[in-house]
Input
Amino acid sequence: MPARKQTKAPPVMAEADIAIVRIAPETSFKNKAYEALKEAILKMDIYATPEQVMLDERALSERLGVSRTPIREAIAMLEQDGFVRTVPRRGIVVVRRTKTEIVDMIRAWAALESMAARLITTTARKKDITALRDFFKDFGKDRLPQDHVEEYSKANIAFHQALISLSESPVLVDLTNDLLLHVRGYRQLTIGRKDRTATSLPEHLAIIEALEARDTELAEKRARDHTLGLAAYVEAHGQELFS
Amino acid sequence: MPARKQTKAPPVMAEADIAIVRIAPETSFKNKAYEALKEAILKMDIYATPEQVMLDERALSERLGVSRTPIREAIAMLEQDGFVRTVPRRGIVVVRRTKTEIVDMIRAWAALESMAARLITTTARKKDITALRDFFKDFGKDRLPQDHVEEYSKANIAFHQALISLSESPVLVDLTNDLLLHVRGYRQLTIGRKDRTATSLPEHLAIIEALEARDTELAEKRARDHTLGLAAYVEAHGQELFS
DNA sequence: CGAAGATTTTTGGCATACCAAATACCAGGA
DNA sequence: TCCTGGTATTTGGTATGCCAAAAATCTTCG
Output
């Protein structure tokens, strides 16, 4: 019942060591706007619309019920992320990536993921590695991935994110997530479509096996080659998918 | 003398094809502030000062001669970069990385650079690869790197950046530059100090050789191991260097 | 003196107003 | 009807002002 104070000096009375978590800072409008806009951008299929998508500060501020100030700050952040580009006196355009850029990003992703695999072989616990198989427990000979592309795609992404998390490297996790957001924006390639889905599952299992075997070099190579395979796929078959 | 118009339709009269370059967009205060603050943060030795460095919006706006608005937008951008963290009603603190974080970043850097090396073996021109040696032309048996650590460190960084640029992958270049900015902030490790400097040069040359030989796997491995070596060094000897 | 409490100051968050460049729109003239 | 100017409007950029939470400072009472 005693209201907790922040006096740090006199231990006259031992304070109840209750788990008080430093009350939620009530995220600012700036951050709320950032999250909202980011989600909105990721949700829309920017590659589907013919003409480029533009944002309007005033319209957004009205829609979100806040002034332009926090909106502008959020826009500035999104611009740092590379999601939008603001042109003075022109407007704010949602950035569309070219096929080349997407391929480039997937390559970087491959680099980071292979490093994650490398680290995992030396630090992760066996049970955590084995747990990676669970993402694909719903698929097998009697339920082929290529027959449930959408669902498999979700499992696919979850697997990759879980894999990288196992590296316990915040940097790898963050960088990869950022890249993935951009790549996913291009949803027509649902991370390797039907024709790639078939080979995907065995490759994933092979990666897991290498991890379990603590074979650093092999795990790294398999992780890298797997994702580079996606890059090559996009590079080869992505023509018609991009404007 | 005729003022150029932007009409694109009727070629009634051939327009003077004067080299008019779309007047410089006069970068905004927001961007100027961003650049200025970023440089200031990178220039100061944040790991040298005992207590954490704080920024003050009003003070900055006064110093830079602009209002708080563009300053705040710049701060928002820097926060996205991970250089500062703003605490509501508290202040803006310049982020200090822990040793673990620095090591983590160097590992990610190793991953990206090894991918760059990989790409280079398949696309770069021989003369561009060979040109990488020039960065170290001032060093040799008669002028050891460890006797000119500061100078060698500069050459070192320039080499790595040039190397990654050769990959012609904007993503790799950008991500690496970002990481490097954070790592360099910790200048007491001048990218591998004296004791590492000795082994650094031969390793660089070995990387170049592998690139010239177009040995993809070897180049990748050497690039990776070289930078991972730095990570290991920091992890082992960085104790006293961090608070 | 010392400490609890009240008050002032500081600091980031947000709203608003105004500016200038770009653009859209419109009326007049060939 | 179709340009040509010119004017109104739109849009991002910037400056200010005020607010509330925190911190710092001062005050007062035991």
The longest helix of chain B spans residues 99-123. Residues 56-58, 68, 72, 86-92 of chain B lie near DNA strand C (CB under 10 Å from a C1'). Residues 29-94 of chain B form a domain with the Arc Repressor Mutant, subunit A fold (CATH 1.10.10.10).
